[in-house]
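Encode chain A's predicted structure.
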Amino acid sequence: MASEYRLSELPLPSAASRVPEHVSVRVLLIAPYAPRGGGMGRIMAYLGEHGTASGATFEMVESRGGGPAIASAWFVLRAAVRIIRARVDCFPTIVHLNFGEGASVARKGFLLVLAAFLGMPTILHLHAADIFGFYARLPPLKQALLRAVFRRATLCIALGAMWRDWLVDEVAVQPSRVTVIRNGVPQPQVERPSVPRGGFNLVFLGNLLARKGLNDLLHALALLQSRNSPIALDWQFCAAGGGDTSALRHLADELGIAAHVRFLGWLDRDATSELLARANALALPSYHEALPLVLLEAASLGIPVIATRVGAIPEVFTDGHDALLVTPGDQLGIATAIRRLIGDPAFAARIGANGRRLYEQNFTMDSFVAGITGAYQRLGCAIG
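Encoded structure for chain A:
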């Protein structure tokens, strides 16, 4: 499909008016793409893979690398050079920057200011799980600097209403420069067995961070083994993700559930898909999240999810209809949700089927690419 670059109603940097019409548009997708880099790089890789039919040309630019944090300076420098080169060759280019919290704000903020200074249209795509807490902990001067940087973006993309409102009310971004676009994931490439074997298989997918609530999940699983449990339950739990497992293994042993628990470490995309396809349910009892891709991936396979009411999760999922939602830290609530799925297969099947419909209606890659294409059009790019 042909692509055009033209002015839109959204104000652009003055240099945009010098870009010729009727030319293709290149998008620099700046994110951490290292295998253990989390959802930001994965969703941008999906966009680069599935968004080519939109007419834009995507180029993935690494912003951090997979090594120690101090080494990220090299990748930031390389990304800056790539932005400058794109400006010098006068090819119409959107700089699409994906922000987390912490050092991610400093890295992408520098690149955003550079691109804006060069007169290039920029997108600030906010994926941060705990941007509110991060911002609140900053001293006033750094808060002011963050606000100034965020307001330099031509357009901000939020994953849900709570971040949109924060950008408008706290950061003072113009409402016309903020839009909400939900994440999307590809159609599953594996088939799920009609009846997964080996008892009830519960899985966790994600980096093994404290905020993911794995300690709470292990305590909840221990409650299933309690002598006070009304029924004997046949279950096993697999956790896949990068991070140190020693403390979690020790906790599982202390709780007397080590025989039921496996820590698989980091898995590649194919192995993760296979693990998920064999699951009866997925649990993500986090304290902070944005809109986790793993929940959408589970829903795409019709797998019931147990999650906490954080981030955009309660905006998207409905408790008792297409997911089971609990309060962060509520170990008894997590155990009750797991026991309900084990003890009522018909209810579990209904939750999974409703989750699958939710995915098909809202979270396919077609929906996501259409939303992103709309954002690019707001920047003056007539795609397709």
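Residues 141 and 147 are 10 Å apart (CA to CA).
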